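Chapter review: from sequence to fold.
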Amino acid sequence: MPRIIAITNQKGGVGKTNITFNLSGALAEKKKKILLIDLDQQGNLSSAFLDSIYSLKLTVADILLDDGMPLLRAVQKTSFQKINIIPSNIDLSKIDIQLAGEPDAQYFLADKLDEIKDGYHYIIIDCPPSLGLATRIGLVASEKVIIPLECQEWAVKGTAHLRGAIAKIRKRANPKLKIMGYLINRYDGRRKLEEVYRDTILERFKDKVFKVELKNSIRYAEAATFKRPITSYLPLSEQAETYRRLAQEILKYG
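The token string follows.
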């Protein structure tokens, strides 16, 4: 059975997609077969692996809108042998209107993942920066949640609504859902204020904070531009080693 992990925060710009992109590379390097699911209509994760996402015949939107369509039909191979992706583009925006009156819409992805549950070690879902339907669909389908945080004033308070949404989904729709951890991203220890907010995060969430901290670096943007996770783009770099340590932390969860 694969581990299904949602990477989410209702605030945009915290690095969810870059984390998903580079983490998949680090896990694949450890011989794990990965399926990525892009639930953000911007399609940035899809663009990091695929060309011309707006000319794709099938995306995650088709899977969600057509109950009879097998999930496997939307799975795309990437240039990395152990990484596949179910891509997204602006077509995903249709689900908010077309599934608005469907009470079971949040279960659609979870139900279809049963079709491929034995084909992967990890399924990682990149959620959009909101608590809308697409994010609920991702959380209902997942077992664990990784919440990226930047060391800024809103970091702790800003997750309150997300934690509330997770609690509601766990109570009814998905009792197995748990927060795997909070991941400090884009950290710059040279800034005293960031150090203060980092200490606040560690105090508030304690052992739920990943030991690995992702520092701010232009190299992550470069890696995405060249469509290669950091462990492939710059395998000997400090940034690549950081993601290997993050992957190792995640592997310890089983």
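Two observations follow directly from the output. The mean pLDDT is 93. The CA atoms of residues 212 and 242 lie 7 Å apart.
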